[in-house]
């Protein structure tokens, strides 16, 4: 990734705290959209100053199309898209609100579509691109009380595979990863830490992502790769 321009969404989040340092270690020039300045400060605490200078922060709402289009225009060229934005809530289907259902799709699927749409336009213009999205084990193996999340993440798999098919014959690839429970502070707070040693670490996911955007993975297209840890 040395010298490549990388759009890394969710780079200040729990998963991003593991992925961002790994991407910077590859020599990339990274743009990270953010919502809250405190998240930038949290990332600054763990990134060496010499690497931090290769991050460009842009305030943005990735649920808004005009905002996403603006981010891409600021970057100028996108070589690599790593889309980490997502989240989940739980509830039985017959008790789950339609508002919450729509929010799951907005956060997990719609942001993925918008980031992919505008990054892909840039990639097609200059004939090169690597796209990695984050789905979930629940997207491939839907679970009770996770109907909305499972459906949205299944959509991420379908979207990514469709893009991979559309870009056959080009130097653009699109793949998705399927983590199980990720060992982040927010997940430990929500679910307890007693089983966290079995969850997949953000740093492990980062290594898979870095491989998928490398030249070694140039022939991998439309893959949905399980990263389950010991769950």
UniProtKB/TrEMBL annotation:
<dbReference type="InterPro" id="IPR020904">
    <property type="entry name" value="Sc_DH/Rdtase_CS"/>
</dbReference>
<comment type="similarity">
    <text>Belongs to the short-chain dehydrogenases/reductases (SDR) family.</text>
</comment>
<dbReference type="GO" id="GO:0004316">
    <property type="term" value="F:3-oxoacyl-[acyl-carrier-protein] reductase (NADPH) activity"/>
</dbReference>
<dbReference type="InterPro" id="IPR002347">
    <property type="entry name" value="SDR_fam"/>
</dbReference>
<dbReference type="InterPro" id="IPR051122">
    <property type="entry name" value="SDR_DHRS6-like"/>
</dbReference>
<keyword id="KW-0560">Oxidoreductase</keyword>
<protein>
    <submittedName>
        <fullName>3-oxoacyl-ACP reductase FabG</fullName>
        <ecNumber>1.1.1.100</ecNumber>
    </submittedName>
</protein>
<dbReference type="Pfam" id="PF00106">
    <property type="entry name" value="adh_short"/>
</dbReference>
<dbReference type="InterPro" id="IPR036291">
    <property type="entry name" value="NAD(P)-bd_dom_sf"/>
</dbReference>
């Amino acid at each position: 990734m040395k010298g490549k321009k990388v759009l890394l969404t969710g780079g200040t989040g729990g998963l991003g705290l593991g992925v961002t340092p790994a991407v910077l270690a590859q020599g990339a020039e990274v743009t990270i959209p953010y919502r809250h300045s405190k998240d930038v400060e949290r990332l600054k605490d763990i990134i060496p100053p010499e690497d931090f200078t290769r991050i460009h922060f842009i305030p943005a709402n990735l649920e808004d199309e005009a905002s996403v289009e603006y981010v891409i225009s600021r970057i100028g060229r996108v070589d690599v898209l790593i889309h980490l934005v997502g989240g989940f809530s739980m509830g039985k289907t017959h008790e789950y609100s339609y508002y919450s259902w729509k929010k799951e799709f907005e956060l997990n699927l719609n942001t993925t579509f918008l980031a992919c749409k505008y990054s892909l336009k840039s990639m097609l213009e200059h004939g090169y691109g690597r796209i990695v999205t984050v789905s979930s084990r629940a997207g491939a193996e839907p679970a009770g009380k996770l109907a909305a999340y499972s459906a949205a993440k299944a959509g991420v798999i379908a979207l990514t595979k469709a893009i991979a098919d559309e870009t056959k014959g080009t130097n653009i690839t699109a793949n998705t990863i399927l983590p199980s429970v990720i060992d982040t502070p927010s997940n430990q707070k929500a679910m307890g830490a007693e089983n966290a040693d079995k969850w997949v670490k953000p740093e492990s996911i980062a290594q898979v992502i870095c491989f998928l955007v490398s030249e070694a993975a140039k022939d991998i297209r439309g893959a949905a790769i399980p990263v389950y840890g010991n769950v």
